[in-house]
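Review this fold:
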Amino acid sequence: MTDSQRPRTKVPIAVIGSGNIGTDLMIKVMRLSERLEVAALVGIDPESDGLARAKRLNVATTAEGVRGLMKLPGFEEVQIIFDATSAASHVRNSALLAPRGKLLIDLTPAALGPFVIPAVNLDEHLGVANINMVTCGGQATIPIVAAVSAITRVHYAEIVASIASRSAGPGTRANIDEFTETTSRAIEIVGRARRGKAIIILNPAEPPLIMRDTVLCITDTDTDRDAVCKSVAQMVDSVAAYVPGYRLKQAVQFSPVSADARIRLNLDPGPDLLKVSVFIEVEGAAHYLPAYAGNLDIMTSAAMQVAETVAARRQDMVA
């Protein structure tokens, strides 16, 4: 982390969390980024595979958490810090780091900062100090809700994220409640649905299946179906630009909403409604994790996209 070691053309970043997500993010930045440089990987387990890999890659490490990061030589040069720990840990980490003037990109469901989905609303939040990446399910599905909302009113949106049980580590399992709450709120705030609901399924199938997501939007029956299909296709292309394994599983489906479904979903009485069903598949890039772990890959890819955009903006300002 010394001046002689760091290319001045890149923005120094640090990653908190030496588990699956943090390690994958470190490797992604090192392999793919032309604007970012990994200055440090931070953990709390000195025996973690992530810290061992970082040391082999000549990345500075500490097993003393955020306090250890702040003691590393060159910490003041770090501009962007990714937090890949847990919601509770991020609250503590943010309290320590907020006074230090760093941009925090939060990959936990803590939601201290605004929800950001790069393909939907990144430009609105480039100036904030703490950016929340919602959840893996949110990154995969909220772009679709937003695409439908761009064409018609969405009275209700429900997403079901199915991920391989093997890809759900301790952090994911400890944050299931936060996942559903944070994703549901983001469906409404970012996706612009009147009401949102999120469900996550840990699929124990062997061999593990890649991430699959179902998005259901309840709209007005006179919705322009061709316009919805076009909007969804454009949004899928936008997300796939930074998550190459992101794709539609099949064509967008349209069906009437039955009276029983209307009652079950607590929808207001009124004109007939239309259900829009979209099925998404997310395959991981396998930089560090298996290809079936698309749920983790979409989080690290989206977070990296945010950092790349921020870094480009800062470099342009300096230039």
Observations:
- The longest strand covers residues 154-164.
